[in-house]
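User: Could you write out the 3D structure of this protein bound to sodium ion? I've included everything you need below.
Assistant: Certainly. Input first, then the structure.
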Amino acid sequence: AQEVTLRLHHFLPAQSAVPSQILDVWADRVEAESDGRIEVQRFPAMQLGGTPPELIDQAIDGIADVVWTVVGYTPGRFPSTEVFELPFFVEDARAASYAFWKLHEERMAESEFADVEILGTWVHGPGMFHTDTPVRAPSDLDGMKIRGGSRLVNELLTRVGAEPVGMPVPAVPEALSKGVIDGTTIPWEVTSSLRIPELVEHHTEFEGPGLYTLTFVLAMNKARYESLPEDLQAVVDANSRLDFSVFAGGTQAAADAPAREMAVEAGNEIVTLSAEETQVWIDRAQPVYDSWIAGMEEDGKDGQALIDAARALMEEYHDSYDGAY
Amino acid sequence: MQRIHRIVHGFARVMAMLGGLVLSATILVTVASILGGQTALGPIPGEEELVQAGMAFAIFAFLPLCQITAGHATVDIFTNWLTGRAFRLLRAATEALFAAVLVVIAVQLEEGMQARLRSGQTTFLLQFPVWWSYAASLVGAVAAAAVGVWTAAARAWELWTNHDLIETGDGAAE
Amino acid sequence: MSDLAIGIWSFPVLLLLIFARVPIGLAMFVTGFGGLWLVMNGPFMAMARLKTEAYTTFSNYSLTIVPMFLLMGYFATLGGMSQALFRAAEGFLGHRRGGVAMAAVGACAGFGAICGSSLATAATMSRVALPELKRYGYSGGFSTATLAAGGTLGILIPPSVVLVIYAILTEQNIAKLFLAAVVPGLLAAAGYMTAISIYVRLNPDAAGVRAPIPWAERLRALAAVWPVLLVFVAVVGGIYGGIFTPTQAAAVGAFGTGLIALANGGLTVRTLGESFTATAKSTAMIFFIVLGAGFYNGFLALTQVPQELSRAVVEQGFSPWMVLIAILCLYLLFGCLMDSLSMILLTVPIFFPVISALDFGMPAEHVAIWFGILVLIVVEVGLITPPVGLNLFIINNMDRETPMAATYRAVLVFVGSDILRVALLVAFPAITLFLLPD
Ligand code: NA
Ligand code: NA
């Protein structure tokens, strides 16, 4: 019989990719493997109230038992996670999600995420430009208002010559249609639900590592997690953590291809910059690394070590990971 | 009693004026940002964050005046028949409840501010600490709670003496 | 008691509080607070929500248009602009029976084309039209009801905040939704004017009459509208020309009207102070209701009442049209108690997949857009249905002499016109869809 009800809260409509292909899978498995002793009530689209940046506090304060959130919505609170937002750093979302989980266990669980129980950590597929006018070189961005999704992405946009505009994802279509912004950065996967191919005609992607990625966590109220009977806690653990993180990152990246296909069908122009063409961008973005490392140092953290560790773990994924969810 | 009431009422008006000035400032910032965007100067960075922080303060600062002038919307169909003491009792009870709620809001807002102070959360673009905005709003929230408590006391006094103290407000029922 | 039962019992409790003259916002707040306490066996969740919820509600960027447009309304009045708009409409319509009320509706429609908020439209036009309606002998309840209904044009005529939210939730094209809303919005204005002429025939005492104005004077009144046109072009041109967001447009509107009022000598230190205090009272009232509604709706969602209720409606196995009508009726019912945005956020994610799965004999996109416009209208009806209708509260609040009950009675004719319009749009989807490109 049902003993525990977990309330899962997030900001996307129930039918969009992350809730239906990742969160529901997680919740269904937890319910099934607990033989129905755990029920996961799902509250999409901020139904329990509040705004997306508050989700992590809702998990910490117990307003929701479990939340899914974008870490970048709360700049300054989880600085170590920003390593995966660095420009041209992540090529494979699965490898980065693997590295994110390992780094979380090693360096973040007891510090930045000490107030909450993290059940999964992942990143989305490569971020890129979707713009009114073609963008091949940084100079094409001169004077263009581009929406960025996190503190670091906004800094990157400034460095490559664009004018960053901060707004949550749901506000992007209206801003694009009204011309309030000239383009946006997001991965392919998000473009289909926001109808971006109808609103812009040009897309710029990069060979090799992507322009940036954003990080996500599935987070649970700590007291609630600790109060679970041991066997139920084991069920939650077995369906969360490393393998789940890799699965989530992989699922999100896999949703890129069909979304890209929609833009192709719409007759839009898709530019894929070669490694050589991308180098100009990488050079322009370099100061982001420098200022990030300097900022971490002010916080008493070794940013370079984090970068190196993340790189090593992404290698390790390719060499040795063979888990499955 | 009347003298204190006039002082509290004056204080509520001052808060409303402050809120109005901040509201005007957010309008000017927005317009300046638009004009800047049309010229070489460029828009004001983080205009939206300034507007949000300013607006939160303004709304909290508007609450005391609404409180002390009975400006909140009510439904009066079912209480029209109440007169004299019974009506005063109902009003005093409601106002006491309102005061309690405003106090709780202020106290919890302070908690929220402390949490943001500890977490170091900043805004996206200007990257100023979010707790600054909370602190500004807290000024208005504390004022609202204080004026709310006074208004409740005044209603209790009205019940006790059976005399009007608070001007007939703009509330829907009046 | 189960969570669901607690949620269901909260309805009578909320009504009881509201009828006991507890301010609406406070009533929703304490019902939500108490409900959360019961569901969670303690106050901690309600307390935890308050750490951020009051601040985030009051700092919501989309909601900042409310005080800006309110202030703009006072400036416009000081600058003689809302009067000019109303007077021009009044010049052409005022001598008809119920004509001044019709003019108010016409002026609301004009204002709605630059404003995405019902509350702001209702509040702004009331400043201008209420005194005029009174002057020409229109009864209090009829006047307030007319303006409350006229105010809904602010959101029925695009641009519209509610449609943007719907577009995002259902992954539909915003521009197409705006386009689809145009004819139903104009129909709404025409419907309200018809409702007025019927009401004054049934209640001849509710409206005064006056002689027609000479044509020269009407044209002069029309010419006096130029500052309105100037702001209108700047604001609307700015939004559609892609220069600013709705909030920026509100700021430009407030700034522009402020300048014009200053030039006309209407804006002085004293009137500025009066504008601030008036804006303060209305804004505080509106935002406290929004805060209370958010608190109560969060509690309701937690108890799963809206979810269970919708499921029960769907599981009856009716025909697609029956399900659609049942859903729209449910919205009307909920609209008696809840605010439109929360209602949309709560129920569209549940109803939309159901509607999409049904066969109405037209393409999926058309069904989605058609349903969106229908939902827009039924949730806006909620703004003027007793007992909880935000527009009713706001307008009634501006008119000390009129009891709420009088407003409630008079607004029913407008609610009737809304329901007729919904029936028309349900029966003939082409009215909504014919403007759409193939
Ligand atoms: Na509108
Ligand atoms: Na209603």
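The first helix of chain C runs from residue 3 to 19.
User: Perfect, thank you.
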